[in-house]
Design brief:
about 80 residues; mainly alpha; two-stranded antiparallel sheet; 2 helices
């Protein structure tokens, strides 16, 4: 296998991911749900402070990262 071809494939995938993230960040305010404030995230507000744990956001990011790694692994074969 040609190493330059593999590097080219990897760079194309990374570029596509960066473009996707850029579009998401540019249109993030127009989305119905904002990343970090998804339904299911735990928010507890008291008189003296607040606690925020984005559990659903963590799950979504984990699934997306797993899919990205799976796709990258397909290109490496």
């Amino acid at each position: 296998m040609d190493p330059f071809r593999e590097i080219g494939k990897t760079l194309l995938v990374i570029g596509a991911v960066l473009v996707g993230l850029g579009v998401l960040l540019l249109s993030g305010a127009k989305l119905p749900y904002r990343i970090g404030r998804l339904p299911g995230d735990i928010v507890i507000q008291g008189r003296n402070g607040s606690f925020y744990f984005p559990i659903v956001t963590c799950i979504v990011v984990s699934v997306l990262f797993t899919l990205l790694m799976w796709i990258l692994n397909l290109f490496r074969r």
